[in-house]
Amino acid sequence: MVFLDGMILVIVESPTKAKTLETILGKGFTVKASMGHIRDLPKSGLGVDVEHNFEPQYVVPEKGEKVLRDLKKVAKDADFVVLATDPDREGEAIAWHLKELLKPKNYGRAVFHEITKEAVKEAFDHKGTIDVKLVDAQQARRVLDRLVGYKLSPLLWKKVRYGLSAGRVQSVAVRLVVDRERERDAFTPVEYWSIGALFSSKEGKFSAQLVDYIAAASTPKTKKIEIANKDQADKILQELKADTYTISKVARSQKQKRAYPPFKTSTLQQSSSNVFGFPA
């Protein structure tokens, strides 16, 4: 791992990971934990400036103040700061907040997916910068969560039960379910019948479905089948039984059927439920 001479501060999210990493890195490295998010939207108030491009108004929570003071103290004397928070959207945002608050002289972003000597060395040898697009994605999600949840949750407390929460995903899903249920309630069932037949020929047996027919009683026009009840079905059936039939056209086509894709967790659970009755 190539660094300039001097003290190197490494920041991760959890103290457990910090201890393990300190053992791997050895002398010359000081490893500290941010204890998760170092700042966030305030618990009281919306925390989003809707009049100015939905700018989030971050605050350092009370539990994070001491952590931040300690990190600032160490970062002030550090010659290089490595932001080694988790390799995901939240971890990238935490790294960005740390950089904004600590204002290090020099910094690098190290990403690793396992805490082994090889993985850590690879990450520290190929340090990068903060992925701003990933940070923007996290901020957008956080702001949306706040805009939806902060407005809807109190309504749920009044109308349903105190303590319920409404999120940006589940609220929309509930709306889709409600709309579908209203469609079901408004639907008026209509009775309809269909007629099928099993034919025999020299080449074997085949089945067919009645699509249209020429009514025997009146005009020779083809009549589209709309069978509304059993009496109508029986009447048409009696007319059809008296006739003989000729195959007027044979159309052949090739069809390809793709194999089902490999199971993932959700499809495995669905199939297990459908076939074996396993609970989801």
Automatic annotation (TrEMBL):
List GO BP terms, alphabetically: DNA topological change
Annotated ranges, domain Toprim: 7-117
Q: Which residues does UniProt assign to the signal peptide? A: none
* Stored PROSITE patterns: TOPO_IA_2, TOPRIM
The Swiss-Prot or TrEMBL record annotates one GO molecular function as: DNA topoisomerase type I (single strand cut, ATP-independent) activity
Entry-linked CDD domains: TOPRIM_TopoIA_TopoI (cd03363)
InterPro entries from the entry?
Topo_IA, Topo_IA_2, Topo_IA_cen, Topo_IA_cen_sub1, Topo_IA_cen_sub2, Topo_IA_cen_sub3, Topo_IA_core_domain, TOPRIM_dom
Which keywords does this Swiss-Prot/TrEMBL entry list?
Isomerase
Q: Name one Pfam family in it.
A: Topoisom_bac
Location of the Topo IA-type catalytic domain:
131-280
Record's compositionally biased regions (Polar residues): 264-280
The record's listing under PANTHER family reads:
DNA TOPOISOMERASE, DNA TOPOISOMERASE, TYPE IA, CORE
The protein's name is Omega-protein
Q: Which organism is it from?
A: candidate division WWE3 bacterium GW2011_GWC2_44_9
